[in-house]
Design a protein that fits this description.
Blueprint: E1 3-7, E2 13-18, H1 19-28, E3 32-37, E4 44-48, H2 50-67, E5 73-79, H3 84-99, E6 103-109, H4 118-132, E7 136-145, E8 148-155, H5 171-178
Parallel strand pairs: 1-4, 5-6
Antiparallel strand pairs: 1-2, 3-4, 6-8, 7-8
Length: about 200
């Protein structure tokens, strides 16, 4: 006859009983007999309300899933003929993704004969890295693959102080307000563009 180790409804050790004895004990208390450790010798069963038991297991799984915030891989694509505004907009997105705890794959695409301008592509990646170096680390150094160049960024372990927390010392914003044109992106004139 198969024997099982029984744990009572209050968590107390009842002992090793036959399955029939354990089932009759559970029926007396109007509860269920649930196997909780099959691989143990003898198997361990618990006298519980099965519906409540399932609910508690589900709740525990949700709590552990909530504690482990899953990071995602985001991709941000650049072209070598990108305008200053578009560049700054995409760098802001990269910063937002990294601050949210996500990894970012930064890609620079080359079309046609642009492939001979790989120095421009690596310059774009270096500039991006310079803009996010205080919040990001490089997981994968810039790498050339086919008609694209890419690098992988991930959040760094040390977080920068936010401006709200740094009001007492003046912070970076105070410096930008004092200097003329501080904090604004200066657009270089390119051939074929009208100066604004």
């Amino acid at each position: 006859m198969l024997k099982v180790r029984v744990i009572g409804a209050e968590g107390e050790q009842v002992g090793i009983l036959s399955i029939q004895e354990a089932l009759s004990m559970a029926r007396e208390k109007e509860l269920d007999l649930v196997e909780v450790a099959r691989e143990a010798d003898p198997p361990v069963c618990r006298i519980v309300d099965y519906g409540k038991h399932k609910y508690m297991l589900k709740k525990k799984q949700q709590e552990t899933r909530g504690r482990h915030s899953q990071s995602q891989l985001k991709e941000v694509k650049f072209r070598i003929k990108i305008g200053e505004h578009d560049f700054n907009f995409k760098v802001r997105n990269i910063r937002r993704f990294i601050e949210d705890g996500d990894k970012v794959k930064v890609l620079v695409f080359f079309r046609g004969r642009e492939i001979i301008r790989s120095d421009v592509g690596s310059g774009i990646l270096k500039r991006i890295l310079e803009d996010v170096k205080e919040i990001a680390t490089v997981d994968q150094e810039p790498k050339f693959e086919g008609k694209m160049m890419w690098m992988m960024l991930s959040p760094s372990s040390r977080r920068p102080r936010t401006v709200e927390n740094d009001n007492s010392s003046g912070g970076e914003d105070a410096k930008n307000q004092e200097s003329p044109g501080g904090g604004q992106a200066l657009q270089k004139e390119r051939p074929g563009q009208d100066p604004a």
